[in-house]
Amino acid sequence: MFVRDIFSFLDTLAPFSYAMDFDNSGLLAGDPKQPVRRILVALDCTEAVVGKARETGTDLIVTHHPVIFDPLKTVTAGSIVHQLISAGISIICAHTNLDLARGGVNDHLARQLGLKCLEGLTPVPCTDREGKTITEYLGRIAFLPEPMSPEDFARFVKERLGGNVRFASGKRAVHRVAVCGGSGADCLSDAIRAGADALVTSEIKHHIFLLAAQQGITLIDAGHFHTEDVVIEPLCQQLRDAFPEVEVLPYHLGEIHTL
After folding, report:
1. For range 80-102, the mean pLDDT
2. Which pTM was predicted?
């Protein structure tokens, strides 16, 4: 099994052509012809992740967030990219393509919250693998099995995702819920138009909480890491099913902590 085979498989799950213009997804360091016996799957490529990859003899790291986002002017000793190259570890990053793809980040976030009857939230024009323009969706909207009060729903989100939450309480019970993993404040207007009682996302600024309260929608900031880490285990299992001869390891530790 080679890096190029893993890349091709990921391209079928979440086509890299879906990636938004600002994004940098794909094989960002390494050799497509490198043999792969062990894969480490993580949200971010940090020094700790590279250390874990070295410790476990990993040949390929797969992350959600790009290890190279802004243009690099130097690659010096000690930098993450230099560490990867020096260790002979390749890295594939699936970012906004995995956000938009069916079965990607937002589907798993919705399922983690027990939502049913998923629909797309914010339409985004994409190019498919054949070069045709199609529409995929950033975020999902669906129903809870039973309505909850805003406060009970906030507690439920904290319990299901495992992080801390901040929230602005809406003016009605929460039944129809919109979700957008990561930084999804831009989805608020679409959530309101779609009749959502709540939006679960992260990185919400103070004035957006105030706007949500004025509009009567419950807005929950459940943390960037915890709204996206939900995709790691399912992605590991998909890789194991496709490549049973390759060992696939998850990595779930984030770099940001709360007291």
Report:
1. 96
2. 0.94
